[in-house]
């Protein structure tokens, strides 16, 4: 049993170590800035303007290995910002109207980089949420309300929030998965900060019968696994992913191979390794948030422009949740849509399909 536990835990430990070394080198004090994609070291580290004086750190986010990164795309302006009692690593790309992308605790800024790079003509903000990789773990794990407050304060720190720099500005927001729950809370708690809020497949599993059933099955499998293999976060995530597997479309019945909800498609080993490195964040940070209830009354009465979406290649439970949220949200006599948006060719993990997601956001935020 001891040997089995080592074999289960070791891959995740190695992945976390490799990513930490790639991001930080031997120590934080040894960081330097370089654009590895084009081989041009900049004269100095990128500085991100902010009303609260965000500290400068270099852009060192696996710039040669992200499989969907655009060659020689503009490097982000990256920085650490003191936000709501923690330090958040944030990356800002481009100029134009602001789009804030909120991922789950198991998603870091680099995972959303391919989507951000494709949104030219916008100021796109991605970040490591509280407790994730380059951000600090102060006060983590936490609920979606705290993540929402972090997001609002981060926009202010970047000079992109409401009344930033003396001018009233609002950001478009895209939240995915557990990050979608944080996006809803952001819209409800800080409506002055947001313009349009697009929520993709938020894990409000308690909202539907199928969602409650899926959450119960996933929770039971995770609990049993961790009772036998404590600390094997990657193994627990694999079980959770398999419990919500999605059959591959277009295959003959005898040839269908179920695919885990969170499993990286073939050839995306970079994402698979990064997912293992962030497995603890999924189990300890994201799963508890998916147990939160939605504030139906606040959602129905909010003046914010909130729209829900799901992918047609995802698990059916997310379409059901999106439809129920859209029904709750629709205000009599308003222009609120009767149905959620559907993004073709996209599963639950949006950064596995950056092109259609970026195209959708471009239309939504135009």
Automatic annotation (TrEMBL):
Occurrences of domain AB hydrolase-1 (ranges): 97-206
Record keywords, A-Z: Hydrolase
Keyword hit for Protein biosynthesis: no
Molecular functions per Gene Ontology: monoacylglycerol lipase activity
Pfam families: Abhydrolase_1
Gene Ontology CC: one annotated term: membrane
InterPro entries named in the record: AB_hydrolase_1, AB_hydrolase_fold, AB_hydrolase_sf
Biological process according to GO: acylglycerol catabolic process
Top-level taxon: Bacteria
TM regions (residue ranges): none
SUPFAM superfamilies named in the record: alpha/beta-Hydrolases
Stated name of the protein: Alpha/beta hydrolase
Organism listed in the record: Cryobacterium tagatosivorans
């Amino acid at each position: 049993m001891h040997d089995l536990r080592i074999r289960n835990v070791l891959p995740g430990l190695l992945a976390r170590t490799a990513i930490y070394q790639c991001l930080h080198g031997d120590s934080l004090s040894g960081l330097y800035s370089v654009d590895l994609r084009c081989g041009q070291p900049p004269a100095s580290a990128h500085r991100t303007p902010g009303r609260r004086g965000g500290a400068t750190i270099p852009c060192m986010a696996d710039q040669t290995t992200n499989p969907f990164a655009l060659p020689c795309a503009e490097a982000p302006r990256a920085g650490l910002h003191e936000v709501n009692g923690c330090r958040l690593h944030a990356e800002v790309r481009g100029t134009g109207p602001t789009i804030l992308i909120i991922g789950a605790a198991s998603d870091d800024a680099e995972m959303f980089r391919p989507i951000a790079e494709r949104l030219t003509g916008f100021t796109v903000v991605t970040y490591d949420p509280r407790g994730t990789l380059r951000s600090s773990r102060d006060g983590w794990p936490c609920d979606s309300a705290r993540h929402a407050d972090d997001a609002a304060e981060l926009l202010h720190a970047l000079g992109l929030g409401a009344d930033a720099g003396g001018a009233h500005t609002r950001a478009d927001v895209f939240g995915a998965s557990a990050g979608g729950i944080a996006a809803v809370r952001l819209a409800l708690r800080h409506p002055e900060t947001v313009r349009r809020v697009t929520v993709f497949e938020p894990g409000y599993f308690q909202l539907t019968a199928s969602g409650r059933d899926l959450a119960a099955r996933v929770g039971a499998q995770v609990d049993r696994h961790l009772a036998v293999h404590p600390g094997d976060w990657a193994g627990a995530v694999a079980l959770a992913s398999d419990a919500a597997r999605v059959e591959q479309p277009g295959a003959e019945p005898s040839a269908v191979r179920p695919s885990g909800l969170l499993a990286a498609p073939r050839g995306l080993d970079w994402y698979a390794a990064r997912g293992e490195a962030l497995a603890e964040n999924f189990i300890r940070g994201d799963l508890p948030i998916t147990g939160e209830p939605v504030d139906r009354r606040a959602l129905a009465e909010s003046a914010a422009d909130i729209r829900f979406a799901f992918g047609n290649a995802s698990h059916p439970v997310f379409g059901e949740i999106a439809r129920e949220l859209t029904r709750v949200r629709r205000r009599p006599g308003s222009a609120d849509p009767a149905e959620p948006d559907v993004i073709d060719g996209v599963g639950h993990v949006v950064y596995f399909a950056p092109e259609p997601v970026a195209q959708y956001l471009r239309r939504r935020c135009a």
